[in-house]
Amino acid sequence: MLDEVMFYDTMRQGLWVAFIIALPILVAALVTGVAIGLVQALTSIQEMTLTFVPKLGAIAVVFWMSMGFMTATLTSFFQSRIIPLVIGG
């Protein structure tokens, strides 16, 4: 019973860390997509690459800006949760 609880708690924490790490990139993609969609609706330009390229650029910029946060969050999760489980503590 204790092993199952520990497994599910670790899984829950891992999913939460994954959500927190992915959130800046997903928000950037959403905001850029809505902004480009609004511009396309206002100008009646329906070009597919017009949505893809700015969204890719925004994702790259946000990823570069939040890389330190993502690394620190993932490292903290591994040091506080995963490594002690592997060691057996």
Automatic annotation (TrEMBL):
List the PANTHER family. Answer: FLAGELLAR BIOSYNTHETIC PROTEIN FLIQ
Per the UniProt entry, the signal peptide is none
According to its UniProt entry, the protein's GO biological process terms are: protein secretion
Q: Where in the cell is it found?
A: Cell membrane
Name the domain of life.
Bacteria
**Protein name per UniProt:** Flagellar biosynthetic protein FliQ
Topology with respect to the bilayer: Multi-pass membrane protein
Species assigned in the record:
Sulfitobacter albidus
**The family this protein is said to belong to:** Belongs to the FliQ/MopD/SpaQ family.
What residue ranges are annotated as transmembrane?
15-36, 56-78
Query: Chief subcellular site?
Result: membrane
Give the UniProt entry's GO cellular component terms.
plasma membrane
